Structure formats: structure tokens, C-alpha cells
């Protein structure tokens, strides 16, 4: 992602933070739901998407189109965020809708409150791992020839009684991933949940489960290295044989037995 694109996303993040600052949890949740509805409408109507992102149309005119189409039909907070978004210059309609969906997810997560964020992050991560490890389930959820509602209902059935309402709602939404896979979409939601807690997500792969003390020491060490608080999600993978592999943002720390053996094999190829 270019620095200009990162700046736009950061600015839109700040806009959402400001718009939702005084809203209640229910108002924040409604804003998120309405933004998802806007994204769906833009996906279904390319001409509307082009009208809101056309760089040849003055900024104020684009904002006016957004207000005239959506004001009174969606929550005021969602309207304000949409207007803020159309004022930016986007590289394309797809980039624009991805940015809007990011804000919809953030609004939904914000509505949970700090007490439920960690639980939702963990539940989304675990469900994503479940789907990724089950080829039949993964194929079923990604089968675009099957009705979307039926696939979303399957997610609800799998999570009913095992996850909170926010987790189920976001997991259902992830089934509708437009271009990305379900696994990638869920992973993005998990990262956003960690960010809402002002934490950076670290995915740790180990051959055997970590003891609580080991996990705590690892979290502290990664936090010192990153210079900020870390949210650790652990994947147990017996194929690693031993050691640990850490994915922290774009950085990968490889310290597994399997990794070292693979490096050794490559020396003799």
C-alpha cells in the first residue's frame, strides 16, 4: 500500500473516531450496519460508485450526491462518515468500498465496548482457524454458486451458543467477502479488533501449547520489541516439530525446528 493510501485510511480512521466519539454502543453498531448496507449498494451499482469517486467531479459535488442519496435513510453518523470518505481522492471504486467496509467493521467493534473486544478477537481468530483447517467447510463458505444467505446461516449455526452476537455478525459478514477469501477477511477483522484495543496482532505458531507463564513472557518480549502492546494469538502446529514462529505485522521471526531443517535442505539443493 502506498504512503498516500495509508494516509487516506488513517485520516478516515480519525474521522470515524471523531464521529462516533459521543455515540452510544447501539448508535455505533447502527452506524456500522448502515455502512455495510452502503458498501453493498455501491457493489451492486457501479455507476453510483463511479459518481462518488470520480476525480473529475468537484469534492463538494461528490459530498452533495452522497447526502442527497443517503441522508434520512441511514444513521447520521454513517452519512457523515460517507461524506468524509467521498471527499478523498481514491485510486478506484474498489479501493473506496474496501475503505468504507473497514470503517463499518471498526464501528461494529467499537459498539461492543472494551470489555467484549478481547473475547470477540479471540472468537473470530478461532473460527477462522476452524474454517481454514476444514477443507469441506472452507469450500462450502466460499462457494459463490450457493445463496449467500444460506452460507451465512451455516455460520450462525456453527457459532450459536459458542460465540457472542458481535462475533457471529462479523463472521456472517466475512462470508460475503467480495474479492478476498473468507480466511483473509476474518484475519483482517481480527487485526482490527486488536487495533481497537491499541494492540498489534502477533500470530504465534508452536509445536505444543504454551504454558500461561510462557505466553506471558513471550507477550512481554514481543511488546518490548515492537514498542507497543501486543495481542498474541497462538496456533499449535505439530508439523513444526519444535521451536516457535512469530508473524508480527510484516515481520516473520522463524525459530522452528522445521524451519531450520528446511533452510539446511536448501543449502544442498
TrEMBL record:
GO MF assignments: proton-transporting ATP synthase activity, rotational mechanism
Entries under InterPro entries matching the protein: ATPase_OSCP/d_CS, ATPase_OSCP/dsu
Keywords, alphabetical: ATP synthesis, Cell membrane, CF(1), Hydrogen ion transport, Ion transport, Membrane, Transport
Keyword Membrane tagged: yes
GO CC aspect terms: plasma membrane; proton-transporting ATP synthase complex
Topology class, membrane: Peripheral membrane protein
Family: Belongs to the ATPase delta chain family.
Protein's job: F(1)F(0) ATP synthase produces ATP from ADP in the presence of a proton or sodium gradient. F-type ATPases consist of two structural domains, F(1) containing the extramembraneous catalytic core and F(0) containing the membrane proton channel, linked together by a central stalk and a peripheral stalk. During catalysis, ATP synthesis in the catalytic domain of F(1) is coupled via a rotary mechanism of the central stalk subunits to proton translocation. This protein is part of the stalk that links CF(0) to CF(1). It either transmits conformational changes from CF(0) to CF(1) or is implicated in proton conduction.
NCBIfam families named among the record's database cross-references: PRK13430.1
Designated name of the protein: ATP synthase subunit delta
Amino acid at each position: 500500500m502506498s504512503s498516500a493510501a495509508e494516509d487516506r485510511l488513517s485520516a478516515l480512521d480519525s474521522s470515524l473516531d471523531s464521529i462516533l466519539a459521543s455515540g452510544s454502543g447501539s448508535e455505533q453498531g447502527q452506524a456500522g450496519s448502515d455502512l455495510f448496507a452502503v458498501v453493498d449498494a455501491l457493489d451492486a451499482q457501479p455507476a453510483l460508485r463511479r459518481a462518488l469517486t470520480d476525480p473529475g467531479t468537484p469534492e463538494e459535488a461528490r459530498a452533495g450526491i452522497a447526502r442527497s442519496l443517503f441522508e434520512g435513510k441511514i444513521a447520521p453518523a454513517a452519512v457523515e462518515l460517507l461524506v468524509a470518505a467521498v471527499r478523498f481522492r481514491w485510486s478506484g471504486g474498489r479501493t473506496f468500498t474496501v475503505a468504507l467496509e473497514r470503517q463499518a467493521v471498526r464501528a461494529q467493534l467499537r459498539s461492543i465496548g472494551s470489555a467484549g473486544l478481547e473475547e470477540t478477537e479471540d472468537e473470530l481468530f478461532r473460527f477462522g482457524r476452524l474454517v481454514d483447517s476444514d477443507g469441506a467447510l472452507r469450500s462450502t463458505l466460499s462457494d459463490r454458486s450457493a445463496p449467500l444467505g444460506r452460507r451465512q446461516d451455516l455460520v450462525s449455526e456453527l457459532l450459536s451458543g459458542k460465540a457472542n452476537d458481535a462475533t457471529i455478525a462479523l463472521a456472517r459478514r466475512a462470508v460475503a467477502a467480495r474479492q478476498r477469501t473468507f480466511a483473509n477477511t476474518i484475519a483482517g477483522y481480527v487485526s482490527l479488533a486488536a487495533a481497537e484495543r491499541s494492540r498489534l496482532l502477533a500470530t504465534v505458531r508452536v509445536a505444543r501449547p504454551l504454558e500461561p507463564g510462557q505466553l506471558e513472557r513471550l507477550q512481554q518480549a514481543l511488546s518490548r520489541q515492537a514498542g507497543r502492546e501486543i495481542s498474541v494469538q497462538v496456533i499449535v502446529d505439530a508439523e513444526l516439530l519444535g521451536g516457535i514462529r512469530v508473524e508480527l505485522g510484516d515481520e516473520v521471526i522463524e525459530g522452528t525446528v522445521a524451519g531450520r531443517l528446511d533452510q539446511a535442505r536448501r543449502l544442498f539443493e
